[in-house]
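User: Please run a holo structure prediction.
Assistant: Happy to. Please share the sequence and the ligand.
User: Here you go; the ligand is acetyl coenzyme *A.
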Amino acid sequence: MEKEVLSILDMRTNAPYDIPIENGAVRASDLRRMKAGPGDFGLMSYDPAFLNTASCQSAITFIDGDKGILRYRGYPIEQLAEKCTFLEVAYLILNGELPTELQLKNFVGAVTHHTMLHETTKTFLTGFRHDAHPMGMFISTVAALSTVYPDAKNVLDPEARKLQIQRLIGKVPTIAAYTYRHSLGYPYIYPDDDLSYTENFMNMLWKMVEPKYRANPVLARALDILFILHADHEQNCSANVMRAVGSSQADPFVCTAAAAAALSGPLHGGANEEVLKMLDEIGSKENVRGYVDKIKAGHGKLMGFGHRIYKNYDPRARIIKWAADQVFVATGRNPKLDIALELEKIALEDEYFIKRKLYPNVDFYSGIIYQALGFKPEMFTVLFAIPRTVGWLAQWQEMIQDPEQKIARPRQLYTGYDVREFVPIEQREVRATSATR
Ligand code: ACO
């Protein structure tokens, strides 16, 4: 095949350049050859918020945002959600291939083996205030595991990486369940190895005095599907944090805590909690149009709407809507669904949202199911973080194994003062400071 090349004429010097195009991209470092004169650093690309910059090559997740396509390792999300368990998908995401029966059995066994928390970690959790936000507790506890497993520092050792991956996937539901029990003042429940990943999570959340917890199979399957949908989403804000922190060879526990911190923001995974607050604020179907008008007038954003990549219906939102119907058969219909459906209908017919290609994203319906399952909104982002841990770890592993990756260190375009003389304190005047802008 003929090589693809971008020919550029630098009008500053009249010098021509041929820049190779690979996988539909030019390398930003190739621009450095273009210098305005001797001593010039060379041309840089400027891309705040990475709107058009690929930071890595990845073979994990494919998204076509215009067509509303999401695939893990080539498999359409719809097929995985219908046919697989969450741990089967986790194996696929981490290893690149669907497991055989034996491989799955071994993987499930290894993850299940690591669901326990060290008793001192439990004590650590006890120290949080009773009203601590579960996401803050989750982030801190995952980071604290770094002190329990100092061997996690061996990030260049594949066997050590495998062990930490199994530990993290095994322990995040336990931590999540403990944050929930802590907020209610309930005693912690130990994991039960007989149960599946999601059933065991439900056991640790909701077991009371019964000798053996039995999960409602419809609800356990719905949670498993939600976990599959949330497992990875290529280079989103938190995956980028995972890779950036991991690029300094920090251990995967602190990297995962950093990624979870990124997820907690209301523009990322924190949006599902915000959606519920918004639906509460709207209150009834009749108030939806007025609320949408307020948003269009510039008062806030419609939470659970819009996406950096999807300019079409988020395929995950479609599957969640389907899963919601299954859950409501078992739990009764969440009355907020009617407000959400009306909101979606009005927004999708409105010129403001059509023009900006704003569609419901994964967070729009997930909160409604979570609430029907019995979770408080404060838990929603933690529920997102459990399965996303798999995606973060797969992204981290891929980054570590990529010979092209180095410590992540962006450039900047400096716009501050040129050098200036130091002013002694008695001669300084009050000036507007940049911090309060
Ligand atoms: N409600 C109303 N208007 C919106 C919304 C929204 N939810 N989202 C974007 N817009 C508008 C913007 O105001 C902007 O309008 P303008 O061109 O008139 O200035 C235009 O649409 C483009 O939006 P950007 O902010 O440039 O889009 P960006 O890609 O930077 O942001 C984001 C994506 C952060 C998801 C945004 O759509 C948003 O804040 N949505 C609400 C929060 C949310 O649901 N987040 C969850 C995302 S999914 C996830 O992280 C798991």
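The longest helix spans residues 158-184.
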